[in-house]
Amino acid sequence: MSDYKKIPRAVALEYGDNAAPRVIAQAEGDLALLMARAAQELGIPAIKDEHLSHVLGKLRLNEQIPEDLYVAVAVILAWAFWLSGKTPEKGPGTSSHTAERDA
């Protein structure tokens, strides 16, 4: 079992006026659990993916996700838009928040 599965992690992404989604918040341990709970209370869609949250957790705040994560994150964003009943606009300029957690 890998170490990253033992520590709860949470990463929040935004895809607004950026060329790619960027990390807007991240936490580990108890703070990650609080972040996940806050997302739930605010109605922000969140998924549980231990591997992806580990990889995203290595990024710096405000850093855009790397190209090799585009497909994985696009699936999450599409799901988040679907859940909220929204349709993303074409290209950058679409505002969306989603939380990626393994907590």
Structural summary, described in words:
The protein has 103 residues and is of the alpha+beta class. The protein has a single domain (3-101), classed as name from scop (3-Layer(aba) Sandwich), CATH 3.40.1690. Helices cover 34% and strands 20% of the residues. The chain is built from 3 helices and 4 strands; from the N terminus they run ββαβααβ. It has helices at 30-42, 50-56, 70-84, and strands at 9-14, 22-28, 46-48, 97-101. β1 (9-14) and β2 (22-28) form a beta hairpin. The longest helix has 15 residues, at 70-84. It is globular. It starts with 8 loop residues before the first strand and ends with a strand.
CATH class: Alpha Beta
Q: Mind summarizing the main beta sheet?
A: 4 strands, mixed
Question: CATH architecture, please?
Answer: 3-Layer(aba) Sandwich
Per the CATH scheme, the topology name is name from scop
Helix content: 25-40%
Mean pLDDT: 83
Please tally the helical runs, counting DSSP H or I stretches of 4 or more residues: 3
The H/E string reads: EEHEHHE
Q: State the CATH superfamily name.
A: secretion proteins EscU
Quantity of strands, as a count: 4
As laid out across the biggest beta sheet, the strand order is 2-1-4-3
Low-confidence stretches: 91-95
Structural class assignment? alpha+beta
> How would you sum up the global shape?
globular
> Gap between N and C termini, in Å?
17 Å
Q: Strand portion, in percent?
A: 15-25%
